[in-house]
Amino acid sequence: MNIKFLNCSIVLFSLAGFAFSAPSVATERSPFDTDEASLTQKQLIGKRLFEDANLSEPAGVSCASCHAASQAFQGNNGSRIPAVAKGSQDGKFGTRNVPTAAYAMMSPSFHFSKEKNEDGEIEWKALGGQFLDGRASNLRQQAEGPFLNAKEMNNASKKVVVDKVRLASYAPLLKNAYGRHVFDNPDKAMFVITSAIAAFEKTHAFAPFSSKFDRVLKGKDTFTPEEAKGFELFKDPQKGNCIACHVGDQKSTNPRDWLFTDYSYDNLGLPRNPDIPENANADSFDLGLCNQDGIAKKAPKGLDIDALCGAFKVPTLRDIALTPPYGHNGVFKTLRDIVKFYATRDTSPEEWYPKNADGTVNKFNDLPSRYAANVNTKEVPLDRKAGEQPRLNDQEVDAIVAFLNTLTDEK
Questions:
Q1: Above 80 in pLDDT, residue 14?
Q2: Residue 379, CB-side half-sphere exposure with 13 Å CA sphere
């Protein structure tokens, strides 16, 4: 059995990480410092952990180093390579564009579900999870990974992390909340630490629903003509068709019904990014979902695991204007670039992909050729062929970008 994926008309993907190297000084002051009085004890502990730059090896990296509040909880820790964040060790970089932690709390746990595909057939669809390959089921599990990742915070073990927290100025908060023996068992202490971070990531600051779009939904603001046109194109199944994956309930005026993702996985055939250090090796490919640890055991019986290769989780589009570059490999520098890519990937592939020695276009060059058939080429606007008119012209691309800018939360 093969699995097929819905198209997400505008997708930004990211590095499977949570924290990467920062200078050995405190990270930026969070704009939500003044809200500490509203936090529960567990959330406050999580905030301290999230901002602590002493929990990496060497010190200098916090969760906030790559998930900065001013960038919708995204960033690259000042990396010289915009597409990937730098790690705590010199010369270490991630392999994916950093994801936003904003609205991450809304994602369901990773699972497979039977759904109708674009042809009306029932097929298995992968949904949810954390990281772009869904390998962490929830926020707590996600928070643990970067601490122990050599390319991120680079700690050798859970005990190393726990011992650092034991020496932190806020350690008494943990003892008060969880008992004086909270640090005695590294596994249990790590569970407490990551649970607190997850609790903080579930606070209002990470999902404020305070954008112009939200005000328009509630009748408290209006779109400009270009924004309104962009929204219609976003929804139009014969034009942008963005809403196919970046879903919203068109009958609802409740912002929580507009998360702009269905948490599915899609293979979009993005161009290879030569700036990523690992891509210097022509045989190195990031295959996304099919490389998720233990995916064969999680997949339904009979599902072809190879059909998952090249698919990445569809993220929310909320705050997208604050999170460049775009694409799971950060290959697109601007929001307009990625919108135009969806419109012209197939009509003018030479704009996006390099040429082979014989002059033909090396399309889908960030995938081994055996997985090229996995790329979404059926759904609008990715259903065109070379030489045909794209579903969106330049003015329509601009209108969709104008609409996407209304999704930016205002603090």
A1: no
A2: 25
